User: What shape does this take?
Amino acid sequence: MLLRKLTRIALWTLAALAIVLTAAFLWLRQSPYWAGITLFSESHRVENFRDMGRVFPFREVPRGESIWAFEQAPHPLPETYAFDGQSRDLTAFLARTQTTGLLVVHRGAITHEEYRLGADETSPFTSWSAAKSVLSALIGIAVEEGHIASIRDPIGQYVPSLAGSGYADVPIEDALTMSSGVDFDEDYDNPRSDINMLFFRSMAMSTPIEESIAELHSIRAPGQFNEYISTDTMALGLVLEAATGMPVAEYLSSRLWGPMGAEADATWSTDRTGREIVLCCLNATLRDFARFGRLYLEAGARDALQIVPAGWVRASVNPTAPHLQPGDNPLSDWTFGYGYKWWIPEDPQGDFVAIGIWGQYIYVDPSREVVIVKTSADPDFDDNDHESIAAFRAIARAVAGE
Assistant: This one.
């Protein structure tokens, strides 16, 4: 009798637990947290990357009244490109890297435009870390306008909340070049890494990202070693906001997005306090990302309107310090060189590129007057950056008639 009674209690307990778990799961599926939980899952990744408003809150980045138009001059892509001593098929590469959009511009004319995996020309693709290059442009504009006195000023001078952190005495310039010396783990494969916990704390616990950055400490003097850590860019976003007195999205809209002639409004994802996550997550059309690349191709100018200072553009993509040089470099944690939030590929040819995880690129080749934008959902993105540059260089050569 006692055994049957205990069995019934156990069964009712399990049934109640199953009901509770089912209800919790159904609630979670309808909550704003579900998109974040499934952000990188294979079944949701492509859709999420072109609809980040489902995942994060955001600020609007309104376009201006005048659109910087592209002409049309169709030109076929090359069938192959050379990489690692082999001739490789470009179409296969685009499929293998889960390309969602590819746009090629030569001398202000679109020569190739294609969309895949459900995207089209209106899709607001997320930039991931390619947004860092946009943030760099805004810093350059703020310096030109006098909001920032010098890029050798320490970050703590502008952001008192970081006065006790590893960023307090880091010059703005060293954060621009990912050389802060601050200790931060950028391992996306480790669920408890600093970068993943930064997002978890900000989105699940509503902890302001500023508070997380204030807890970081230095492990080396700034300006000596190039180590990619995204909080360098977040610290710069705080500098920009404090110096201009404007939210970053508003400053972007008024100083760059509108004057540049974007054809669509953009959005910038925020934490739950409403502050832009400037280390990533600017969401815009392929053509508008291409306009930003074209702006750097044209030394920061749209026709006669200088938007980003020409000197800033040159300094951003022509690093001189030893630890920022491309190639095998004991003073850097990667083989690409680094400027003010722009990457310099190996075997320098004057080209430079903004890169975001999962295969987002804004590639600029000034010598051939080519801009290439590629958006992707590539799970092997870390292994494909060098091959992507090889493909882009082949496309640029073909479009330029070489």
Notes: The chain has 14 helices and 16 strands. Confidence is low (pLDDT under 50) at residues 20-36. The chain has two domains: 2-47, 48-399.
